[in-house]
UniProtKB/TrEMBL annotation:
It holds the Pfam family GST_N_3. PANTHER family: GLUTATHIONE S-TRANSFERASE OMEGA, PTHR43968. Residues 1-77 form the GST N-terminal domain. This is Glutathione S-transferase family protein. InterPro entries: Glutathione-S-Trfase_C-like, Glutathione-S-Trfase_C_sf, Glutathione_S-Trfase, Glutathione_S-Trfase_N, GST_Omega/HSP26, Thioredoxin-like_sf. Residues 83-220 form the GST C-terminal domain. Transmembrane segments: none annotated. It comes from Leptospira ainlahdjerensis.
Length: 221
């Protein structure tokens, strides 16, 4: 049995979960938070989630996890297409989303979720970075109907898990100039993805957890 360690509020846990669900694999989710405890660092050296356990062995890094699962369970859909050019495109899109959009966007939404004030200078700086990233992404996405083409791939796992969070979390900071609003095809793509079983499930679970976290914050305040 595959075990996926991590919380359903995490983009990268959800990225892996989307791949697992789309491939129809049986799995168990072990709900753990990121941790710098020695025991957790043994299975996840950066202390991050997700971690995957298969046959008593552990894998960390969401991309490595999905590539591994796609190799040992080669049934459709192939998260990494067999065609090397298509495979490269899937990896390009995934890297672009995470490196040029999610990592910069996190500097805003993680600070904000921890109750820190986000300064205008940071918002301006990140807006430039995200605008550049969105323009670059626009050149390579297909949305026909999936982000990299006709089939569901790892790029969809990353896009749905990361870009929906960036879209929602940055809305209050960029109410009139959200960089993702310039990504043509994005809104229709999200609506299409939400009609699918796996993404709908991931979204529902994320929303449920968010409400619990919001309620807990209100109690503390
Ligand atoms: N590159 C990693 C990123 C994973 C990641 O950043 N996970 C977040 C949760 S979404 C985390 O564990 N953060 C806690 C930390 O950075 O210490 C991957 O693809 O798995």
């Amino acid at each position: 049995m595959i075990k996926l360690y991590g919380a359903s509020i995490s983009n990268y846990v959800n990225k892996v979960k989307l791949g697992i669900l789309e491939k129809g694999l049986e799995f168990e989710q072990v709900r753990v938070a990121p941790s710098q405890e020695e025991d957790f660092l043994k299975i996840s050296p950066m202390g991050k989630i997700p971690v995957l356990e298969v046959e008593g062995k552990f894998i960390f890094e969401s991309g490595a996890i999905l590539e591994f699962l796609d190799t040992i369970f080669p049934q459709e859909p192939k998260l990494i297409p067999n065609d090397p050019w298509e495979a490269a495109r899937v990896r390009e899109i995934t890297t672009m989303i995470e490196t040029y959009l999610d990592i910069p966007a996190r500097r805003i939404y993680i600070s904000s979720s921890r109750g820190k004030e986000v300064e205008q200078i940071l918002l301006d700086e990140i807006h430039i970075v995200l605008t550049k990233g969105v323009k670059a992404l626009q050149r390579v996405v297909r949305f026909s109907p999936y982000i990299a083409g006709k089939t569901f791939t790892m790029a969809d796992c990353s896009a749905f898990a990361n870009l929906t969070v960036i879209d929602e979390e940055l809305r209050k900071f960029y109410p009139n100039n959200h960089p993702l609003d310039d990504l043509q095809g994005w809104k229709e793509y999200v609506e299409f993805m939400k009609t699918k079983e796996g993404p709908a499930l991931v979204e529902k679970e994320k929303e449920r957890l968010r409400k619990i976290i919001e309620r807990a914050k209100v109690k503390v305040e």
